[in-house]
Write a structure and sequence with these properties.
Strand order of the largest sheet: 2-4-1-5-6-7
Strand content: 15-25%
Helix content: 40-55%
Order of helices and strands: EHEHEEHEHHHEHEHHHEEHHEHHEE
């Protein structure tokens, strides 16, 4: 089960620098001119979770395997991308393939770094990107509505449902609202997802500030925060330049550097955690002397489907899940003490896995 977050933004806002830091490589060429990135760069990153280390220490696990999330560095969009400007069609196709969007906004002044529109206004930049995505969705829906009419006339139930959802999305978009603002019933959720609209994807605004503003942000990032709150979205303040420097240091050096900058943790950790939360993801653990491992599921996942993340056979032959809450596992000192204290539960197929659960699955082969 892979989850992808696409890093988007106008040219020269720090997307590739952020990607380099995230993946701790120089895989994404960072340069001071538009369209430096043409093909998307892809990198898997570890999701920071202190709980995994704690569990491994208690179980004396020989190996620690964290969960991961994929970030995709997508080339800079410009006004007119929905009409193909700046290789826009290719970039929009890349966005369509990700699960969520991390929208990097330039919140720093620097005369040596050109802005594609000749000014620094992150809120306007956000509106530019959102407008292009909405225009692309409108064009896509209008074409598909033309093609679905015959099926609707023929009484195709799926087509009738699709047309209803398409028209609801189109109405919102024509009012200037992204498709994610459309309320969708549970029975329509699958068909809605199949529309693959760009503006249904959740958005995290990443405010890229100068090094001196990394700890507290600035007026520009504050404006983005207000915009995000009004939209029901979230934002993170980082300095991509600092994060890239930190990514090249060892753990001790990085901690010293963070302390000098007045930072408690790397901004990247906040970006990764925010991306994880944005996708409505949770973590459960399997723990033993061989390995302690984190597994990613979406919120609301039932035990059999959570088992299927490990292997399809676990889901098919699911019998039950032996479950210990994280806090019980830690406070009591491991699996056996938790079992002796009556804190290990046998959960069946209807059990919804909770974030932090330590699980052991029993299944028929």
């Amino acid at each position: 089960m892979g989850f992808k977050v696409g890093i988007v933004g106008l040219p020269n806002v720090g997307k590739s620098t952020l990607f380099n830091a995230l993946t701790k490589t120089a895989a994404a060429q960072a340069a001071n001119f538009p369209f430096c990135t043409i093909e998307p760069n892809v990198g898997d990153v570890t999701v920071p979770d202190d709980r995994l280390d704690t569990l491994a220490a208690i179980a004396k696990s020989k190996q620690i395997i964290p969960t991961r999330i994929t970030f995709v560095d997508i080339a800079g969009l410009v006004k007119g991308a929905s009409k193909g400007e700046g290789l826009g069609n290719q970039f929009l196709a890349n966005i369509r393939e990700v699960d969520a969007i991390a929208h990097v906004l330039r919140c720093f002044e620097d005369g040596d770094v050109v802005h594609v529109d000749g000014r620094v206004d992150p809120v306007a930049d956000a509106e530019t990107i959102e407008t292009e995505l909405m225009l692309a969705d409108i064009e896509s829906l209008e074409k598909r509505l033309q093609n679905i009419v015959r099926k609707v006339r023929g009484g195709d139930k799926d087509a009738v449902q699709q047309e209803r959802l398409m028209r609801a999305a189109l109405a919102a978009l024509e009012e200037g609202r992204p498709a994610r603002t459309v309320p969708v019933d549970a029975e329509d959720a699958k068909a809605w997802d199949m529309l693959q609209l760009l503006t249904t994807k959740p958005v995290l605004y990443v405010c890229n500030v100068s090094e001196e503003d990394a700890a507290n942000g600035n007026a520009l990032s504050n404006a983005v925060g207000e915009m995000a709150a009004a939209q029901g979205n979230s934002h993170v303040v980082i300095s991509a330049r600092i994060e890239e420097e930190i990514s090249q240091l060892d753990a001790e050096e990085a901690q010293e550097f963070l302390s000098e900058m007045g930072l408690e943790e790397p901004g990247l950790d906040r970006v990764i955690k925010a991306g994880y939360a944005l996708l409505q993801l949770e973590t459960y653990f399997t723990v033993g002397p061989k390995e302690a491992r984190a597994w990613t599921i979406t919120k609301g996942t039932a035990a059999p489907q959570a088992a299927g993340v490990i292997h399809g056979d676990f889901e098919k032959g699911f019998i039950r899940a032996e479950t210990i809450a994280y806090d019980d596992y830690v406070s009591l000192g491991g699996e056996n003490p938790a079992k002796e204290a009556g804190k290990m539960r046998a959960e069946g197929k209807s059990y919804v896995v909770k974030d932090g659960d330590v699980l052991h699955f029993l299944f028929n082969t």
